[in-house]
Design brief:
The chain is of the alpha+beta class and about 775 residues long. The protein is built from 18 helices and 38 strands.
Length: about 775
């Protein structure tokens, strides 16, 4: 947003406010200054009047002019195409120092003496105003011949570019920024009360009417101007050039200037789009094919707040123009564009961030410019459509200000700040303020926004620093941790190819007791079961999964992989959470890679699937307490030294009973599964070595016993070991060959052969002494 100090001064009295103070104030209230330039035409550039203009006798493109500077008439040779007699111009007198260290001197051009230079805007340090020299007019003030241009405000100003955040659309105008300065500087706003003149004017109702069949969340105001002999006043053209504003016609220039001044979105349409001469024009407001509120005449002319049809622009130099002022809430139009984006014009930038809702102020400001700078005739009255608006009320107690800010601010100061910001304050109830948020401050929605307004006006530098004491209660409850843990393992199971199965927490007592599970104590049994098959609380997830697998087989499913998480109950109705798995039949689906004949699930493959979900674990020998498990294909799952559950093949008789192929099941206690922060462990940067030992051991000797002996006597270099082969033959008698693979590594060096040999000899000696085991 680009402003100038003199332009701001038209809306707020800045007398006595230095530019340095103004810049600091902008930064303090959150309007960050991105650029500052001083606009000042050099001394010696004065107002002149071209009394005569004749062609140069010896040059086709030069003119010899006689310029009156008040005290004398000077002869100036000028090559500009737009120079002519009867115009006021900017004349650089001899000796004037122009930008670029150019000093103006006496000259003779093609034999004709020239005593000065008629200047273009760029030659005196201003932005370009088009081709040729500047032509001055009374819009800059009374034109006094010979007066230095820098004595006029238009040529002695401060340009300030402000970087606005997207939520501060209320500051996208001179009026909006002046409104913020009012609160910061405690100076009154120069509200311009435009009163419509009714001296015999033709009313707009005689030439135009508005039709709509439903309620729209938009404000519209229409005026009419019979444009005649309109040109862009110099002061307006200069300011639009300073803010880098572009326009095609004089009407566009005045509306752009009015929008920049007031913040109201303004457009102009030719009357012919709505009706024929001597007939009443009709504007229709309705939703277009994309659901946007749009204006129609003989055809579609614009979308409110978004775009204007190219053919609907007022491009003529004269004629009857319909002026539209509009407002639509930024959240409405931005959401609509998010749902269905359509082409937009520059006005959308304002409307999507929040334009000025006082649309009557904008249209009055614009029509006064038409009357001031041309003989154009403005029609009396307006046609309006206003939506209802209920201001947002935010209640905040006086003590909350001190709590948030850390500084006690008296009630009078708070009240004055809000009034200066345009916010109404209701009658306080005790120490509570009821603040009514104005329509133009759509960014204020809660107490924190209210506090921010106070802080930026008071000034963050004026608030003493205090140490921050902030202690937040732990929000991580046990229930939340348990939920996250269960969710993690459910996701792992799904990623490993299992489908989730969900059952009631009830089983049939006869069925669970048939397979060796103990149900709830009769005295604590269900009084009113849902059905006869749901007459007890389940003691395990396995029966429910088994029933689901059976149902899948009956619909010809070849591969069944199910899991379930849920509560189970002991005889006293104490609950615990379990996760259960069942895999039956094929290990994978039929595909080209397995020639349409996938392998059947086996113990090793099933164990690998469970490991993908539960992580690393150990299997130890186990005798099941129920009859679902195969007594010789059954193991206890141990995680971190804690019994976590069991893993087994379904007993062949049960497989036959449920018409299931080879099936494996597992049930784990969720409390035994790891969850939480994983801590990084140190690792060696040196190479690991591998050694195999083939041992002769008794068939009656369990691996758990061998493992315990090795762990007791193993050196620090042995990081881990595991069985890789088991061999049994008649030649070995009651013994078998067990091959173990050892991984050896040191934190200090790369192990040498003698280090490895010593470590392996230590293992052999321990096994021989403790168990009588030797090398094969």
């Amino acid at each position: 947003m680009i402003v100038t100090k003199n332009w701001l001064n038209e809306w707020i009295d800045l007398s006595g406010v230095s530019t340095e103070t103004l810049l600091k104030t902008f930064n303090a209230i959150g309007l960050e200054v991105d650029r500052h330039e001083t606009i000042r035409v050099p001394d010696g550039v004065v107002v002149g009047y071209v009394a005569q203009c004749e062609k140069h006798p010896d040059a086709d493109k030069l003119n010899v002019t006689q310029v009156n500077v008040g005290s004398e008439v000077r002869q100036i040779v000028c090559g500009a195409s737009n120079v002519r007699a009867g115009i006021y111009i900017a004349l650089a007198t001899v000796g004037a120092e122009l930008p670029g260290n150019l000093k103006n001197k006496e000259a003779k051009l093609r034999g004709v003496e020239s005593h000065g230079m008629i200047c273009s805007a760029k030659e005196i340090g201003l932005p370009s105003l088009g081709e040729g020299i500047m032509i001055l007019d009374s819009s800059i003030g009374e034109l006094v011949l010979g007066k230095n241009l820098n004595e006029y405000g238009s040529f002695n100003d401060e340009l300030i570019e402000i970087e606005l955040t997207a939520n501060r659309g209320d500051c996208l105008s001179i009026h909006g920024i002046a409104r913020d300065l009012r609160a910061a500087l405690s100076k009154p706003l120069r509200e311009v009360n435009h009163k419509e003149k009714q001296d015999g004017r033709l009313g707009i109702g005689r030439i135009l009417q508005l039709h709509h069949n439903e309620t729209f969340d938009t404000d519209l105001l229409f005026g009419a101007v019979d444009v005649k002999e309109l040109h862009v006043p110099f002061a307006i053209a200069l300011r639009l050039a300073l803010i880098e504003g572009t326009y095609e016609t004089a009407v566009d220039a005045l509306l752009l200037y009015s929008t920049q001044s007031t913040g109201v979105v303004l457009r102009a349409y030719p009357f012919e789009k709505f009706g024929e001469p001597d007939t009443k024009g009709v504007i229709t407001l309705e939703n277009d094919e994309n659901g946007y509120a749009a204006l129609y005449g003989k055809e579609k002319v614009s979308v409110i707040g978004v775009s204007q049809e190219k053919e609907a622009h007022f491009k003529a130099e004269s004629g009857l123009a319909i002026i539209e002022a509009s407002y639509i809430a930024p959240d409405i139009i931005a959401k609509k564009m998010g749902d269905k984006k359509i082409p937009s014009c520059p006005h959308y930038y304002r409307s999507s961030r929040g334009s000025e809702p006082k649309i009557e102020m904008g249209i009055r400001y614009a029509t006064e410019l038409f009357e001031k700078y041309s003989p154009s005739q403005v029609y009396g009255g307006n046609i309006e459509l206003l939506s209802s608006y209920e201001p947002r009320i935010i209640s905040i107690a006086e003590e909350e200000f001190e709590s948030f800010i850390g500084l006690k601010i008296d009630k009078t100061t708070i009240t004055q700040i809000f009034k200066n910001l345009g916010m109404d304050i209701g009658t306080p109830k005790g120490s509570t303020f009821a603040i009514s948020v104005p329509k133009f401050r759509h960014d204020i929605v809660n107490k924190q926004d209210i506090i921010e307004e106070i802080v930026r006006i008071v000034g963050i530098d004026n608030i003493p620093s205090k140490p921050l004491v902030f202690a937040e209660a732990n929000q991580m409850s046990d229930d939340l941790a348990e939920y996250k843990k269960t969710r993690m393992y459910r996701h792992r199971a799904a990623q490993s190819g299992f489908y989730e199965s969900v059952h009631f927490v009830f089983n049939e007592r006869i069925q669970v007791e048939k397979y060796g599970f103990v149900g709830t104590e009769p005295s604590k049994e269900l009084l009113n079961p849902i059905t006869a098959t749901f007459d007890t609380l389940r003691p395990t997830l396995l029966v429910g999964l088994l029933n689901s697998a059976s149902a899948n087989v009956k619909v010809n499913q070849k591969k069944i992989a199910l899991f379930e998480t849920g509560m189970v109950f002991d005889t006293e109705r104490n609950e615990s959470k379990r996760i259960g798995f069942i895999v039956s039949g094929a290990m994978e689906s039929e595909k080209i890679a397995n020639a349409g004949k996938p392998a059947v699930i086996d113990f090793a493959s099933f164990t690998k699937l469970i490991s993908d979900v539960a992580g690393s674990f150990e299997l130890v020998s186990h005798t099941p307490t129920h009859t679902l498990a195969h007594p010789y294909v059954c193991a206890k799952v141990v995680i971190g030294g804690v019994d976590a559950g069991e893993l087994f093949r379904l007993h062949p008789s049960v497989e036959e009973e449920f018409d299931l192929p080879q099936t494996f099941m597992c049930e784990l206690n969720v409390d035994s599964l790891p969850f939480g922060l994983i801590e990084a462990q140190p690792y060696s940067k040196y190479q690991a070595s591998f050694r195999d030992l083939s041992l002769l051991v008794s068939k009656e000797l369990t691996y758990e016993t061998i493992k315990a002996v090795i762990e007791k006597g193993a050196s620090a270099q042995i990081r881990r070991f595991y069985p890789v082969d088991r061999y049994v033959s008649e030649s070995l008698g009651d013994q078998m060959s067990l091959t173990l693979r050892f991984v050896l590594q040191s934190d200090d060096k790369t192990l040498e052969e003698e280090d490895i040999t010593a470590a392996m000899d230590g293992v052999l000696n321990t096994l021989n002494v403790e168990l009588g085991v030797s090398l094969r």
